[in-house]
Amino acid sequence: MAKLILSMDGLVLKDIPLTKERMSIGRKSHNDIQIDNLAISGEHAVIVTILNDSFLEDLGSTNGTLVNGVQIKRHFLQNADTIELGKYKLKYLNEAVQQATPADFEKTMVLRPDVMRQTAEQMDKKAFGDTQVGQGATTTQPTPAAATASVPPGAAPAPLPLAAIQVLSGTGSGKTLELVKTLTTLGKPGVQVAVIARRPQGYFITHVEGTSFPVVNGKSLDAQAYPLADHDIVEIAGVKMEFFVKA
Predict the structure, then answer these.
(1) pLDDT tens digit string along 204-230?
(2) Which end of the chain has fewer CB atoms within 10 angstroms, the N or the C?
(3) Could you give the maximum distance between any two Cα atoms of the chain, in Å?
(4) In a 10 Å sphere around its CB, with 0-12 CB exposed, 13-18 middle and 19+ buried, how is residue 199 labelled?
């Protein structure tokens, strides 16, 4: 299990296991990791952990968030990264972390038309990998191999049926994206972002960014992972999509 080591001026204060999928950091008492210091914003940052991967996001804090001395907005955490919040440091330790690039967090996205127009060229070349659904984007086949979780010796993993999402609203209506990757990121950066995780137990959606949470079948979710069922209607950043299991 990944953990953080909180320290100040070289003095270790405590170990903090990342036991929840979404853990908030801030000065106010309702945060999962409370740091009672005026240099820390009330709701400063959040860490989202899915499978073996953790992602850090600054929540618009006053003094910012540094990782290894560099100010970040969103960062894919790797083993031994040091998060700096004022005089406090949080060292991220996770020996099981996958060797991935920071762009993996946003490898696959469904974007609203205004974002597509502004960043289409960059997305095609760098940030969003090989699969896009949206205004002006083409849909290509993603890598066929999906990551699988380890199972106990002698136990045969139950086959997970392939699922997909179909865009129901907006200019990308009708386009379909197969959920073959371990993580598929959906939404509009800066407004609302969620992640669909492909696990041995099924497909789960988790809120990552934004003040409002994803809506499934007309019901707003909370910070916890939510299991998706066949034909669920998901709404993220104003775009409606249908989750379905392929026969």
Answers:
(1) 998 887 788 999 999 999 878 899 999
(2) C
(3) 57
(4) middle
Q: What is the rounded distance in angstroms from the CA atom of residue 185 to the CA atom of residue 79?
A: 22
Distance CA 87, CA 82 (A): 12
Residues making up the chain, counted from first to last = 247
Using CA atoms, how far apart are residues 190 and 43, in angstroms rounded to an integer?
A: 16
Strand-strand pairing, 3-8 and 108-110:
unpaired
Work out whether strand 131-133 and strand 45-50 pair parallel, antiparallel, or are unpaired. Answer: unpaired
DSSP codes of every residue in 16-28: EE--SSEEEEESS
Neighbours of 225 (CB within 10 A): 20
**Does residue 159 surpass a pLDDT of 80?**
no
The bridge status of strand 53-58 relative to strand 33-34 is unpaired
pTM: 0.49
Helix (H) or strand (E) holding 122: helix 113-122
